[in-house]
Amino acid sequence: MRVFLFLCAALSVFVTFAIVYILIRDSAGFFAHVPLFDFLFGTMWTPVFADPQFGVLPLLAATLQTAGLAMIIAVPFGLIMAIYLSEYAKPAVRETLKPALEMLEAVPTVVYGYFALLVMTPFLQQFIPGLKGINLLVPGIILGIMILPYVVSVSEDAMRAVPNSLREGGYALGMAKWQVATRIVIPGAFSGITAAFILGMSRAVGETMVLAIAAGQNPNLTWDPREGAATITAYIVQMSLGDVAHGSVAYESIFAVGLLLFVITLTFNVIGFYLRRKFREAY
After folding, report:
1. What is the DSSP string of the chain?
2. pTM metric for this prediction
3. What pLDDT digit, counting tens, does each position of 91-101 carry?
4. Mean pLDDT, to the nearest integer, of 143-159?
């Protein structure tokens, strides 16, 4: 049994290193033609034009905007819902609400994409002047709803791991329930809550279908979320449909932006790992 488990763990490590190797190998061909400085700081992304430009900033800006909008939705609402489930909800209510919330994870992302495009966007256009049919705002909101189950579930588990003796100590000092929640439970579960936020951020950065459908596929360096723009994942989907010749610089750009996405996600996970180790409480 021990050997089998070791082989399973070794297989996951092998697959991870194989993916990283392929990304680096195929990206090397791209960077042989495009200088790294032009790639990171260029403001035009036109890989299939007669005069191709490979500045990734338009894709990167759209990716970070949608992920940021998602976190604006998911962090406060997720934290409030986790506090309610952990500290206020009765066991029967918790056992009903939490599985119901986690069922949102089972909804296909393509459904979220068309919900954003056909329902949410026309609805918000009645209240937000200048909101285009393809925009970054609505996909960002939908991404926030999508990652809520991750944030709530992990945060609530971390809060419930805080020993009841700490809560009882707070009540013995005359604290109200909300004071116990905010001054004892949240600080005690800070490392787990941070892990939930990092997990949600990584999920938002890597999401594909919602952004490909509702945010558009036109690289556009803009900081106005009412406009549409292609994200890194949407670009990968667009260029992977077979219209670009294998071995061309445009084709190899898929692996270059994929490597950039991997580095971004890895950075978030390293930050999360550091915060978990720094603020972890051992009970």
Report:
1. -HHHHHHHHHHHHHHHHHHHHHHHHHHHHHHTTS-HHHHHH-S-EETTSSS-EE--HHHHHHHHHHHHHHHHHHHHHHHHHHHIIIIIS-HHHHHHHHHHHHGGGGS-HHHHHHHIIIIIHHHHHTTSTT--SS-SHHHHHHHHHHHHHHHHHHHHHHHHTS-HHHHHHHHHTT--HHHHIIIIIHHHTHHHHHHHHHHHHHHHHH--HHHHHHT-S-------TTS----HHHHHHHHTTS-S-TTSHHHHHHHHHHHHHHHHHHHHHHHHHHHHHHH----
2. 0.86
3. 888 888 888 88
4. 90
pLDDT, average across residues 252-278: 87
At 119 the pLDDT is 93
At 282, the pLDDT band (50, 70, 90 cuts) reads low
